[in-house]
Amino acid sequence: MPEQILVTGGAGQLGRVVVERLVAAERPVRALSRRRRSSAGVGWTVGDLRTGRGIDVAVAGVDTIIHCATDYRHEVQTVRTLVEAARWSGQAPHLVYVSIVGVDRVPLGYYRAKLAAEELIAGSGMPYTILRATQFHALVRTILAAAARLPVVPVPRFRFQPVDVRDVAARLVELALGEPQARVPDLGGPEVRTAADLARALLGAAGREKRVVTVPVPGRIARGYAQGGNLAPEHADGVVTFEQYLAERGNATALRYR
Ligand SMILES: NC(=O)c1ccc[n+]([C@@H]2O[C@H](COP(=O)([O-])OP(=O)(O)OC[C@H]3O[C@@H](n4cnc5c(N)ncnc54)[C@H](OP(=O)(O)O)[C@@H]3O)[C@@H](O)[C@H]2O)c1
User: Fold this and answer.
1) What confidence tens digit (pLDDT) does each residue in 93-131 have?
2) Among candidate residues 141, 140, 123, 148, the one with its CA nearest the CA of residue 230
3) Which of 6, 40, 45, 118 has its CA 20 to 30 A from that of 22?
């Protein structure tokens, strides 16, 4: 029997691309969402990882789980629900978890939760693989687009290494189809860039000219970013650049300026 793969968060930014790749590879794929959904080649299942509703059904008979769902305020609880349901299924599925570069270096609440979730998975006795990725293009664009609405664009003295969800999805699928490897090397975007440089790229793609100024941001979290805690320069393995992403997105119409 071909391996049955469950993708949690199958309708999310990353999960959607993971599901598309599995369908294109003609793999049997089940996808979890809190809402009823349908799409060709996908066995959608309804469940909520916070309450546990429907999760036993979602994991039943599954060989591999690619966990792309995330609940920003309840990350550990939702991972625990998934791990417990998977263990009770008696199937010992391979759990592939996507985490974030710097969860152990930047003291952001969500990052701490991701680190605790990694530790929970590692201590669960389940076969697992953990991949940490840098910030996705869309997140970096969202952060900078908010600043780009101002007459003078303020940016922090941070660097980013934005990665495309297609690069992350490709790596996750590769890992899911292989043997469990515990923590694997991080995945970063192809370029480490200053926030100022990325803001100029965003403005340029929108055909705008504005002054970009670097402003100091106080606090421990900002220091973690300023020290490059969110970067993986030695793993700049993503292929799609920020400019390519912006060009494909048709960003000029997406940026709303005052
Ligand atoms: N965004 C980044 O820059 C970045 C960088 C590195 C790593 N990551 C990691 O990549 C993963 C995916 O991120 P993303 O940006 O693709 O997230 P996303 O677009 O916000 O999607 C998350 C999905 O989680 C599902 N979900 C939320 N709460 C749930 C619950 N209680 N039960 C079941 N499903 C639930 C939602 O699906 P429904 O609404 O359909 O239920 C949603 O589509 C996360 O683990 C994140 O930490 C993200």
Assistant:
1) 999 999 999 999 999 999 999 999 999 999 999 999 999
2) 140
3) 118
Tokens of 45: 């299942």
Query: Does any ligand 1 atom lie closer than 6 A to the CB of residue 33?
Result: yes
CA 49 to ligand 1: nearest atom? 32
- Please give the helix or strand (H or E) that residue 182 lies within, else none: strand 182-183
Query: Which of 129, 144, 151 has its CA nearest to residue 193?
Result: 144
Dihedral sign computed on CA atoms, order 17, 23, 28, 32:
positive
Helical pair 109-122 and 75-88, crossing angle rounded to 10 deg: 20
- Both structure tokens of 44: 């959608």
Question: For residues 162 and 130, is the Cβ–Cβ distance under 8 A?
Answer: no
Residues in the chain: 258
Domains present along the chain, CATH in parentheses = 5-254 (3.40.50.720)
**Is 258 a pocket residue for ligand 1 (Cβ < 6 Å)?**
no
- Rounded distance between C-alpha atoms, residue 223 and residue 217, angstroms: 8
Reported as a single tens digit per residue, the pLDDT across 31-89 is 999 999 999 999 999 999 999 999 999 999 999 999 999 999 999 999 999 999 999 88
Exposed/middle/buried for residue 179 (C-beta within 10 Å: 0-12, 13-18, 19+): exposed
With a 6 Å cutoff on the Cβ, whether 9 touches ligand 1 is yes
Q: Structure pTM?
A: 0.96
